[in-house]
Design brief:
- The structure is a single chain.
- This protein is mostly helical and about 350 residues long.
- It has one domain.
- About 60% of the residues lie in helices and about 5% in strands.
- Helix 3 crosses helix 10, helix 4 packs across helix 9 and helix 9 crosses helix 10.
Length: about 350
C-alpha cells in the first residue's frame, strides 16, 4: 500500500504546516518521567529476573520470554534516547542530555556522536544529492548499472535482509558505535569515550553479579534482538513502496516528510514499544514533538491524515525494493532490472 498523499492535493508550505504543529512541540515533565521510570524499571526488573534464572540454573527455554521482553523495552529506551537528541523528551536541555547519555549506555550508542549524524539525516533524507550520513545506502538504477561489478556485488550483499537485519545491527551497535567518525568534533569524540567507559563499567557489574558467560550471552541476545527491531523500523521509515526521493534542486521538505516518510501503522503493543515512531511523517515535519504527543498531533491535524498507513504485512514488500528509479520515481527491485 502506498503511503503517498493524493497527488491532486496541494501540499501546504513548510512554514504553515510547522506553525500548525508547533503547539504539540512542548515537552512535559510528568509523561516523560512516567515513560522513563516505568520502562527503565521494567527493563531492570527483567535483568534481575534473568539473574535469578541463572542462579538457579534454569534451562535455555526459560530465558526466551524475558529476553524478548527486554529487547522490546530496549527499543523503547532507544526512542527516548532519540527524543533526547532532539531535546524533545524533557523540558530541560540539560536533563535531555543526562537521560540521553544514560539511555545511550544501555543501548550502546554515544549520545553526541549519534545525535550529530541523526540531525544531518533530518536535513538530507530523501535528497539524492546529499546521501551518505545517517541513512540507508541507496543507489539509483542508473548508478547501479554504471557501477563496477564489485560495487554492485557489495550493494547486493548490503541490501540482503540477512545482512542488514542480521549482521548489520551487531556491526552497528557493537563495533561502529565504539569508534570515532570522520569529521566529528571534540564533543562527539568525548561522548564516544564516555559511553565506552560506562559500557565497560556496566559489563564489569554484569559479569560480577551474573557471571561473565551468562552476562555476555544475555546481553548479546537482548542487544541483537533489539537491534534487528530497531534497524527494521529505521529502514521501513524511508524505504517503502510509493516513497519519495528528489535531486537537491527539486527537494521539498513537506513532500519529503509526507511522501518520503512512512506512517507505519503497527498493532497497539508494537506502537507502544516503538514509542509512536511509526508516525514518522509527523516526526520529520517537526522533530521537537515528543514521542508521547505524536499520536495526539496526528489525530488533530487533518493534513497529516492524508498519508495512507503502511501496514505490517504490506511493509514486508520493502525487503525487495532496492533501487530508486528516477524515471518512474519509485523504488524498484533488482529483479525489475531484467525487465
Amino acid at each position: 500500500m502506498s503511503t503517498v498523499p493524493d497527488a491532486a492535493q496541494e501540499l501546504p508550505s513548510v512554514d504553515a504546516l510547522r506553525q500548525a504543529l508547533k503547539p504539540y512541540a512542548k515537552p512535559a515533565l510528568a509523561p516523560a518521567l512516567w515513560q522513563l521510570s516505568s520502562t527503565l524499571g521494567a527493563y531492570l526488573a527483567l535483568w534481575v529476573l534473568m539473574a535469578v534464572f541463572v542462579r538457579y540454573d534454569l534451562p535455555f527455554w526459560a530465558f526466551i520470554v524475558p529476553v524478548a521482553l527486554a529487547a522490546g523495552l530496549l527499543v523503547r529506551l532507544f526512542i527516548f534516547f532519540h527524543d533526547c537528541t532532539h531535546s524533545s523528551f524533557l523540558p530541560s536541555r540539560r536533563a535531555n542530555r543526562l537521560v540521553g547519555y544514560l539511555t545511550g549506555v544501555l543501548t550502546f550508542t554515544p549520545f553526541e556522536s549519534w545525535g550529530r549524524a541523526h540531525l544531518v539525516h533530518h536535513g538530507t533524507y530523501a535528497d539524492l544529492d546529499r546521501r551518505g550520513q545517517g541513512d540507508i545506502w541507496t543507489l539509483t538504477v542508473e548508478e547501479y548499472r554504471a557501477a563496477p561489478w564489485y560495487k554492485r556485488l557489495g550493494y547486493r550483499l548490503f541490501r540482503n535482509p540477512l545482512v542488514f537485519l542480521g549482521v548489520g545491527p551487531a556491526y552497528q551497535f557493537l563495533i561502529v558505535n565504539r569508534l570515532y567518525v570522520k569529521g566529528q568534533g571534540a564533543k562527539e569524540r568525548r561522548s564516544v569515550n564516555i559511553t565506552n567507559a560506562l559500557i565497560l563499567a556496566m559489563i564489569a557489574l554484569g559479569g560480577w553479579t551474573v557471571g561473565w558467560g551468562a552476562y555476555f550471552a544475555l546481553q548479546l541476545a537482548v542487544m541483537l534482538m533489539a537491534g534487528v527491531l530497531g534497524v527494521w523500523l529505521f529502514y521501513v521509515q524511508h524505504q517503502f513502496e510509493g516513497g519519495y526521493w528528489a535531486r537537491h534542486e527539486q527537494w521539498d521538505p513537506v513532500a519529503a516528510a509526507l511522501k518520503g516518510c512512512s506512517y507505519y501503522k503497527l498493532p497497539r503493543v508494537l506502537q507502544w514499544i516503538s514509542g509512536n515512531i511509526g508516525l514518522h511523517h509527523v516526526h520529520h515535519l517537526l522533530p521537537r514533538i515528543p514521542n508521547y504527543r505524536l499520536q495526539e498531533c496526528y489525530d488533530e491535524v487533518p493534513v497529516l491524515q492524508q498519508v495512507a498507513p503502511l501496514t505490517l504485512r504490506a511493509s514486508l514488500k520493502s525487503l525487495w525494493l532496492n533501487l530508486w528509479d528516477e524515471q518512474r520515481e519509485r523504488l524498484v527491485s533488482f529483479r525489475s532490472l531484467k525487465a
